[in-house]
């Protein structure tokens, strides 16, 4: 280096470098770069501000909506999304600014791309959860308070969240199900249910009489209970075996009231058949 | 900077920069850019306008169609699609305009690409739902009111939607099934059904006589019921065991009328066999 | 701008711009562009015309083919494919023409690519359906009227479509199965079937005699029924238990005639064994 | 345009354009293009010719091979492959020639790439079928006439095709299985089978004597039947219950002859045990 | 080489090379490179320092959190993540610096990309584990000490880790479950449970009396046990058979106390029914 | 053309073209191309030669290895791999040489890439088979002659091949399993087995005495049979029912000898218990 | 060529080529290339040396670790990894060096990329095995000697390898399980187990007395056996049927000692109940 300075002359190098820097052609280049950097920076700030405001708006919307959301959770998720956006935008702003100065940043982009894909693959089910959650609310598939079944889990909907839905089963457990796994849903709360009861009597019972009594009893139960919404129907002989005959009765009742209705009919039919000397054996 | 100005001369830099800007060669470049920006902007507006109109058209079409769509849902989905298209087109218009000014926007594109792929993977089943939904209607697989079974869910079709189909089961629940999961469908409502009834009598019964009575009774039932569309057929001895013999009868009946027809035949056969001193034991 | 015009001189700019436009070097460039645009446009029109004609040809072919296709469906699908091709080709023609004018259209292409991949992933099973459908017909796997089973669905083939195959089950339902799901097919209609019947007699029965009677009866049935195509074979003692002995008979019969043949043999064997004082107990 | 001609002078433009075209520098460029186009065209023709001949060769080979192929099917598939290759090669030849003239064809290539990937994904199982089919033949996994089981399908191999294998089940159905699904194969026809027979006698039977008789009978059956290839072995007491004792016999026999051998032994053992006052009860 | 030196003159080459190196134009180029290298190096150090500090911060946070983490494990994972980041950043810094010197490093990047993707695919479930683990804590799905069930594994949560969750089953085994597999969770500890008890009595029992006794006994148990939180309810006749009648009682109790409550009621009901001359037979 | 020749003068064009070709600048360009082509060609030949030799070496190795490989198969696979490598290398050599002459071959590469990916996807399981096969041998998972179970297939290993492994089941069938499907393997041949025998006696048997006799008998059997490697252990009372008591004995024996050992113990215990007036009833 | 030499003059070409080669501008270019090649070569050697040393280090570490690794296997795997790294690095060094000489090597890279992806897909489960194996050791999921269950395989851990884990089942088989398939693990050896025993007595047994005796006996067993670590608890009446009553006892015992403890309690309870005139019937 010292040798180099001695031979080439430091003075000359300094002077020529200076001339290079202050030449007008370079100035215009640098002006362009400066303008581009400013534009990029301003755009980055604008995008961050807009998305943060949009997220805040959505969070407020959610809090106002009649669906029961846990405000704390919505709030935290709002801040989480905001941070992720800010960091990502800043990363791209830095990359873009550096690239204007002529840095070859392809490797960093490639690295970020591979990382992004890797996270993207891992986060695939996360994205699916959010999209499906959106459609569950959007399509009125079920609401908080409905009794639904999805897969093997049945229960009352306690909360429809951004990522998971919580069901409370009849025996008190909480099923936490990612929205993305809620593909086929059965909603038990939107329409009346149909209670189906099989009444079995011995083979040698007088079937006409048994049917008559069954019909009258079912009618009476219908008039006394507000769970049953239509007069029960006796469909006929469902099955015959060596020892008994089975009749089937159906009764349209309020959503999810089948077990109560069946228990009610069970008891009343047993009583009334017994009163007429017949025996309900199933 | 001050130093720079002092040495290089601010006046000179200003003058030369000015010359650079107003030189004709640069003017033509800038004219080209201006024209390109205008073309891009116009194209963007045209695409947005056309797609919005197409979506509005499709929404109106759907509302007119005989299939029962919930107008509110169709409307909201229409607006949703419109917004997504507008935002996407605007994003590309901005990117294209900036790229005409010489911004190196590869990083943003790469970022958008990774994001697009990530969302694309998550939304894969959404796309599949819409495509399959389209083919369900297009191929007349089933219509509102048909009784169908797909997977483990059987019921009457209540609504064929853009993304999900709703079935109402016999006992009143609503099954909500994404169209993409409706792969194998069984439609019970387009053709007549075949009721199959096994009549079991004791081993030592006179089989000829039992078959005769069964045949006559089935014929009589056929003449009195409009559910059965062809005279029932006695296929013969289906099975023999140590204690009993089973005959099989089939009766072509109206779609989904099998349970009623079987109950009807059950009752009538029990009665008529009893009248002839035989006993139906299954 | 006004300032600029005052300083730089509008007249000079106009003149030099003009010179730039009419210089021969630029003329040759523009001529090249014009020729390329024309070639691209012509190529686009040619591709559209050829593919449309090819589709129309295929539709006509299908209508003439002996397989039962619903002409309305084939027609609509023909038009659908035609439109998709036209729109795609036009999109590429516009892109190519614009790219000749020096527009940087990479972003649009990237966007279209991501969109194409997203739709491609969603439409994957659609492509698979069509390819498999092609091979089903191409390889004579089954024809309309055959009884086939695929997965859990068994029935008579009603229609082999472009995307789905329709089976009519024995009890009257229509199974609609996407061709892509028809992987393993069992065709019951191309070869004779083998009816297998197990005849059980009590342990202390004279086995030699029982076999003799069984053989004679089976032979007789074979001579009277045209469903059985070869004389039935008595394979021997299939199983022995504490209380009974089981013999196995097989009878090659017409495709899908097993149930009838078994019922026939069942009845006749019961009768003939009884005539000889033996008892068929299974 | 007219204005342009008036101002710039059409004559001058024409002359300079002409000069441009006939200048030697451009001539050499065009010569190069012409040579490249010829080379590309010739290469395309060569590739098409070679692959078509290779396919034809393979088709002839297949027809000569001892495996039973349906010549009609092989022929059609040969022509199908030939067409696909020709169209693909021509497409690339046109693209390459156009690209020599300076057309920017990246969009078309991207489009073809997306299309290719879409079809590729859909055709994935097709490729897998062909590759697996190749290895089935190549590795002698089974041959036409062998009894094999793959998945739930068991039967005699009727045909090993390019894409599917056809099995004929014992009861006459044809199972058509894509080669790609034939992963685990069980071949029943290459080695001798082992017939396993459990002989149950009452608990209070003289076991020594029963074993002696069983051994003698099995030996005798072995000497009279050519299905059994090695003298049967009495393994000993397999199980003991409250009421009975079970002995196990094994007999190596010809492939797939187990049922016949077991039926034979069943009958003979029942007879010989009875002759010695013992009773085979299972 | 020697020849070359003789002819061309080593002196001249040396001199001209020297001139080339010390010419000011090259100096500015090299100055730019030097600055870029410094910027890249500084950026690399900054990124490493920041991420290392962030990881250390998170580790400390975890250690302070009330959830029981094994400090040793958290620590090791912290160091592991730190190393991975340092190595990756250094790799990119080296690549970027080399690329500033004009090395064509595309092959290395491509290689690293393929390697990254390969590892990315293999590590997919790892990423998913971490993301799901984050959401489990974030969404309060369950806490250490809760009794949960996921898939077939039920137990008390012992530790929620970065990658796996440990459950201790009732019989003492530790189930170690990757967080990514914890999709559907059932939490038994957040709400009261419902104990369901079926009481079966003989068919000819006086049902009114039995219900009265059952009710009184259940009430008494409720008053003496603090496991039951609401008075038990007698729902009615659940089922009737030929020989017995079954009544159902439900009792809301503390989370996971059902078995104890049922055993308690079982015993007390047996006793009190016996005291009244009735017999609990199920 | 003729016009062109007349105007421009063919002579002049010829001359200038000639000058262009023989100018030294072009000569050096062509020399470079020639050298590169030679290098590429030589490299291609070298790669082909080396890989072919490596394959041949591996084939010879395999033939010498103690594992039973079918030499014919190994040979054919060797040649197959050799051909695939040669064709691929030649394809790349041609592409590289053409690209040195300035052909734009991106389309062909893209086409080959798509094709490669398509085949790659289809051949995925093939690659997996080979890799897993390599690790099976490499990790000594099992050897020819071992009894192993993988999935539902159990048998003696007959051959570990490049792509498939062949098992011979106890009843003589050959299971052919792709190596890639051999994930979980159970090897029965490397360690001693444990025979487990449950001895059931009537509830009122003198348990002490029964255990004593059992112990003595088991000891005696152990001394007489070389299949049992350790003295059998009487674990105690395994289960109690209303009518009987079950004791459990375990005996460490040679690999896969459990059935024989159990049969042996079964017989001897029955005998010795009977001698002491006790009865083994299970 | 001869013609060319005659016309253009070989002498002149030779001279000018020479001038071209020895001109200083080219010298500096070649010097740069030479330096780059040296840097690349040195870097390649360094990477190879470092990774080889790192692998050797890891192998030594493994050999010293208390976990039982088979040294031979670890050694071979070390050498295997070393070779793969050397070949890969050399490939990239050659590619990089060639690319410095201006070879267009994109095709080779594309080919290597497709090959890499193909192998990467096939080797996906291999990578997953190694990563999961690392976490098994890293997270102390289980150690050699523990009894674990994963999937359907239960046994004592014999060896945790780089790719597979070996379990020895209770009956002596070795289960070889790829680490990637070890997702949910149940470890039976880290905590005490809970032995659960149901004691059934006849319905009319004096329950109080039976419980008293059971309690005393269990206590006594606890005092005499060191397998039970806490005094057994009598939970109460578990179930009641028509004929019997079942009590449940639990006893915390050493890991995996449940079967022994249950057998012990079984025997002792039978004896003590009998001594008090009661009968244990299940």
UniProtKB/TrEMBL annotation, chains A, B, C, D, E, F, G:
InterPro entries: LSM_dom_sf (IPR010920), MS_channel_1st (IPR049142), MS_channel_C (IPR049278), MscS_beta-dom_sf (IPR023408), MscS_channel_2nd (IPR006685), MscS_channel_C_sf (IPR011066), MscS_channel_TM-2 (IPR011014), YbiO_bact (IPR045276). Residues 83-124 form the Mechanosensitive ion channel transmembrane helices 2/3 domain. Residues 197-278 form the Mechanosensitive ion channel MscS C-terminal domain. One of its GO terms (cellular component) is plasma membrane. The chain crosses the membrane at residues 27-44, 80-99, 105-127. May play a role in resistance to osmotic downshock. Belongs to the MscS (TC 1.A.23) family. This is Mechanosensitive ion channel family protein.
């Amino acid at each position: 280096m010292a040798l180099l300075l001695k031979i080439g002359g430091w003075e000359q190098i300094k002077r020529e470098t200076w001339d290079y820097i202050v030449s007008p052609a370079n100035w215009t280049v640098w002006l362009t770069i400066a303008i581009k950097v400013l534009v990029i920076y301003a755009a980055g700030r604008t995008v961050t501000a807009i998305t943060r405001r949009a997220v805040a708006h959505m969070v407020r919307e959610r809090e106002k909506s009649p669906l029961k959301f846990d405000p704390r959770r919505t709030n935290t998720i709002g801040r989480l999304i905001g941070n992720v956006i800010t960091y990502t935008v800043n990363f791209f702003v830095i990359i873009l600014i550096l690239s204007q100065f002529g840095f070859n940043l392809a490797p960093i982009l490639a690295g970020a791309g591979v990382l992004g894909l890797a996270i993207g693959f891992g986060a695939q089910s996360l994205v699916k959860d959010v999209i499906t959650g959106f459609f569950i609310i959007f399509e009125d598939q079920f609401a908080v308070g409905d009794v639904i079944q999805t897969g093997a889990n049945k229960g009352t909907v306690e909360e429809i969240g951004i990522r998971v839905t919580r069901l409370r089963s009849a025996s008190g457990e909480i099923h936490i199900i990612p929205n993305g796994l809620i593909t086929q849903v059965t909603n038990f709360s939107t329409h009346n249910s149909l209670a189906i009861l099989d009444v079995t009597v011995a083979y040698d019972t007088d079937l006409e009489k048994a049917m008559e009594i069954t019909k009258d009893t079912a009618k009476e139960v219908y008039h006394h209970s507000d769970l049953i919404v239509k007069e029960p129907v006796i469909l006929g002989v469902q099955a015959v075996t060596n020892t008994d005959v089975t009749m089937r009765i159906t009764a349209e009742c309020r959503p999810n009231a089948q077990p109560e209705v069946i228990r009610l009919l069970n008891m009343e039919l047993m009583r009334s058949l017994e009163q007429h000397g017949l025996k309900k054996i199933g």
